[in-house]
Amino acid sequence: xTLTVRLSNALESQLNRYCEVKxxxxxxxxxxxxxxxxxxPCDTPAHPLLSYVQTxxxxxxxENWAGAxxxxxxxxxxxxxxRVQGVHELxx
Length: 92
Known about the structure:
This protein has helices at 9-22, 26-39, 48-58, 71-80. By secondary structure, the protein is mostly helical. It has a domain at 9-52. The mean pLDDT is 78.
């Protein structure tokens, strides 16, 4: 099978220098790199960003996740600024 791959100039230069120094063909180096890559154990077949999104989606927010923008914090800021028409503390 023939495969065409676009490389950045820097990566192409590195590949060329490596092949010259080691006396190997580009095909051999790329094939070896792919074999090594696929031989690595992989915790998850998913892309790292997909793993992050899945983890974040299943995580519970902390108690203070909204920080300064939580309802209680915003209510306290508004009420601390004096009486604002239409904004009242709810009776318990």
